[in-house]
Write a structure and sequence with these properties.
Blueprint lengths: L1 H46 L6 E6 L6 E9 L3 E5 L5 E5 L3 E6 L15
Length: 116
Amino acid sequence: MGSYLVIIAVLIIFFCIRRRRRTAAVAWQILNQRKQNKENVVMKELAKQFIGEECIIYTIASNDGSIQGVIKEIDDGGMVIERSYGGREIVNLDFVTRIRQYPRKKNGKKKDIVWD
């Protein structure tokens, strides 16, 4: 009978510790999401400066590392880019590392080669 009480006490302690760890993990995730959302708000506000401009958007998710086009609109999680051939793309702001206005010559024409 005494051994059953010891087993029950150990199980209760185990579940209490497990619950505390779960609660701590959830709290850490919430704090991490708030930190990321703050960074997203900053990038969103900075990216709004380029609406209507032809830009080079550098991402970590695209195949060649950058996307060229006109930024049409920016919402909570992403931006709509209109490509030169008429296609549209939506890019997640979490993956954007840099936005650059397309370089132009003195006469206003686009440069043929862009060096980074």
